[in-house]
Amino acid sequence: MIKPDGVQRGLVGEVIKRFEQRGYKLVGLKMLNVERSLAEKHYADLSEKPFFGALVDYICSGPVVAMVWEGRNIVLTGRKMIGATNPQASEPGTIRGDYAIEVGRNVIHGSDSVENAQKEIALWFGENLAEWTPAAKPWIYE
Ligand code: UDP
Ligand code: MG
């Protein structure tokens, strides 16, 4: 999910480009203003953290772009492409390492496990995902 700062800073195309060019398949995409209740559910695991209120404010501060990407090891590789939670620790070449400075404005969210990805897809998209076979598939996978 491209967070409100990523949208405001014009990074939607850049983020999509990186996942698309890596070879991953886009199966869900939408722009929306996030209701507090959705942001609170999405980050429920962090509800006891001192930054929870500010985090929910941040996610609700403008539209986000929610996406579902599919492909081999997408959760693990996607997290690598995104970089560390704190952009100060994110390597250059990662999205946060190239475009962010502060943890509270780190441009993008990525699911941290397959289980959480499934939960988050259900929460944000329900069953509404596209089914398609990219023409380039045999040029990406052996
Ligand atoms: N966050 C924050 N302060 C912190 C830790 C996290 O504002 O000290 C925010 C940050 O935007 C982060 C989000 O909370 O992306 C969710 O935290 P998590 O630990 O799940 O990091 P992520 O999975 O996004 O790397
Ligand atoms: Mg997380």
TrEMBL record:
It is an enzyme of class 2 (transferase). It catalyses: a 2'-deoxyribonucleoside 5'-diphosphate + ATP = a 2'-deoxyribonucleoside 5'-triphosphate + ADP; a ribonucleoside 5'-diphosphate + ATP = a ribonucleoside 5'-triphosphate + ADP. SUPFAM superfamilies: Nucleoside diphosphate kinase, NDK. CDD domains: NDPk_I (cd04413). GO terms for biological process: CTP biosynthetic process; GTP biosynthetic process; UTP biosynthetic process. ATP binds at K3, F51, R79, T85, R96, N106. Keywords: ATP-binding, Kinase, Nucleotide-binding, Transferase. Its EC number is 2.7.4.6. The active site is at H109. It comes from the Eukaryota. The keyword Phosphoprotein does not apply. The keyword Nucleotide-binding applies. Residues 1-131 form the Nucleoside diphosphate kinase-like domain. NCBIfam families: PRK00668.1. Belongs to the NDK family. This is Nucleoside diphosphate kinase. It comes from Tetradesmus obliquus (Green alga).
